[in-house]
Structure formats: C-alpha cells, structure tokens
Amino acid sequence: MTASGFDVLCIGNAIVDVIARVEEDFVSRHRLVKGSMNLIDEARAEELYADMGQAIELSGGSAGNTAAGVASLGGRAAYFGKVRADQLGAIFRHDMRAQGVAFDTAPASDGPATARSFILVTPDSERTMNTYLGACVNFTIADVDRNAVEAAQITYMEGYLWDRPEAKEAFKLAARIARAAGRKTSITLSDSFCVERHRDSFLDLIRNDIDIVFANEAEIKSLYQTQNFDGAVKAVAADCPIAVVTRSEKGCVVVNGSEVHAIPAHPVSRIVDVTGAGDLFAAGFLHGFTNGRTLYESARLGSMAAAEVISHIGARPEVSLRAHAEGLGLL
Questions:
Q1: β-pair type (127-132, 115-121)
Q2: Quick one: angle between helices 295-309 and 277-290, nearest 10?
Q3: Out of 1, 93, 257, 266, which could bridge 307 as a Cys pair, Cβ 3.0 to 4.6 Å?
Q4: Would the pLDDT of 42 be above 90?
C-alpha cells in the first residue's frame, strides 16, 4: 500500500452483502432478533440463503462502507480487511478499488470463504443482519501495514472486529501505532448487541485509546447501562474527547467536553433501506473533520451522506457524495 497520505484509514470485516426484502414472518420463522446483527455459521448461512428468494449482492462491511463514503466525498481513503482469494473476494477487492479506496490487504489463499452478510429488509425498512464471518477471522496483526496507519490522519475501526480475538489484537496494534505517530483514532460501536458482548473492553478502549467514538442512541445507552439518553451522553463526554451519537430522525448530538451540538437530520423524501446509515454518517463526519470543518459542519455532512444511502437499496452511495454536498452548499 502506497502510504502517501490518507484522510481516513478504515479497518473492518470485509463482507459481501446479500440483500433481500422479506416479510415479517420470515424474521419470526427463523427465530431472528429483528434489527440486530447475528453471527452465523456456514450451515445457517446456507439455510437462510435457500429461503430468502431474490437477492442483490453488493460489497459491504461496516468500515468498508465508510471508506467508500469518504472516497465518494473526494477524501483519501484506505482500507484493511481480509477476503479469501475466491470469486466474492475478487468482487470485493474490485469494488473497493473502483470506488477510489486503497485496499491492498493480501487475500487468504486457504481457509474459510470470503465473508457474507444476509441483510433482510422488512416492509418497515428495518434491517436484520446475519453474518458469516468466513475469511474475516484471518485478519491478524500481520495484516496491519504500519506505514499506512502512520500516514492516515484518522484510523477508524468497527466494533464488530471485537468478536474475534485475532482481529481484536490487530485493531489494538493499529491504535497504538496511530497514537504513537500523533494521529487520531476512532471507533464505531456497531451494534447494541456487540456492546453487550464487549462492554468492559469497549469502555477501557474508549477511555484510553480513542479520540472519536461513534454510536447510535441504543448503543450509547447499552454502553452505560442506562435508559437516560442525557445521562449516557454526559458519561461518554467524560470518557472520550469527541463523541458522536446518532438518533435517526431526531438527528445527532456531538459532544466535545462541555461543548454540545444538536444537529437535525437531513431531510429524505423516502426511506427505502436503512442499511449503512451509520457507516455513511461516519464517512461524512470524518471527511469534514479531516478537512478542517467544524464539528457542526462535519455532522451535517454525515447527516447528508446517511440520508442519501437510506434512499435506496444497498449500503454504499449511488451518486457522487461530493457533487451532492457541493450542490447543497455543504462543501
């Protein structure tokens, strides 16, 4: 990877999304927790796929979506993630590079197949994710390119990585390298169920190694084990220099010490699929932040990017986010 300088380096599970519209009874019939991300094995993946009906396959993965969003905004994005040297792995690599993201993590020559996430979209546009991690389990400290980390203004990591010990260690190594180089680190908590699994270690990481934390309302409440939103925001403000908390149609709250910004949601005419909303919000915010925008301006960019992605199927932009932002006077 040519480390000539990046705005944002994203680290995450390299996953191909398999998206299908389903009825409510599909979710209950398969005993799924609606709105959650469930880790599944290969047998379960085959079972769901056989019952899904017509689907759309798109390169995804939380941090991969964020990297694609940064690139669409005109930012310099890089990505670390593990795929297998198979058909889906080749598709994922091609898609990332075609979107302008530097992606040079070596593919695995053996072991599990490239990861895939079955994203089930119910009529209310809520998505339930069932993820077979596959080759993601092979992402280790050997895949952390020190030069790329040192060259990135911000290294951004997805909380889902915490589910695998090897990936967790790679995540922590990248954070140490970034901070030693005077760079910033960021994490998204990813999912309230992920927070439940890793609350203590997330809190330790946020308090000691993270400069910017992203969460939605459910995740931040889960992190601090409270139903009081204001109390959770006050707690995270004491634990991390910058916290960005999204609240769907209520917009978002950005806290920086005693400084609090409430930003309204960007208007959207029709919500089609909320997959990737948080990922693209992070992309917009990080692009603004790494290009000298204020916290308020950065959050507005995030809100705009999230609004674009929920207006269509799929978790990556369908238009140039930079051109869209310029047309709205946000860039």
A1: antiparallel
A2: 150
A3: 266
A4: no
Going by the DSSP 8-state scheme, the letter that residue 61 receives in this structure is -
Looking at this protein, which amino acid is placed at residue 124? D
- Within 10 Å of residue 33's Cβ, how many Cβ atoms? 10
| Phi, psi (degrees; rounded to nearest 5) at 303 | -65, -40
C-alpha–C-alpha distance, residues 152 and 72, integer Å:
17
Chain position carrying tokens 């909303």: 277
Per-residue pLDDT tens for 223-271? Answer: 999 999 999 999 999 999 999 999 999 999 999 999 999 999 999 988 9
Tokens describing residue 158: 């997805």
CA dihedral over 199, 200, 205, 211, signed as positive or negative = positive
Q: Check: CB of residue 108 under 8 Å from CB of residue 83.
A: yes
Q: Which domains does the chain have, with CATH numbers?
A: 6-327 (3.40.1190.20)
Largest Cα–Cα distance of the chain, in whole Å? 52
Does the global pTM surpass 0.85? yes
Q: What is the 8-class DSSP label of residue 164?
A: S
Distance CA 331, CA 328 (A): 8
DSSP letter, residue 293: -
Instruction: Kindly state the tokens that stand for 61.
Output: 């993965």
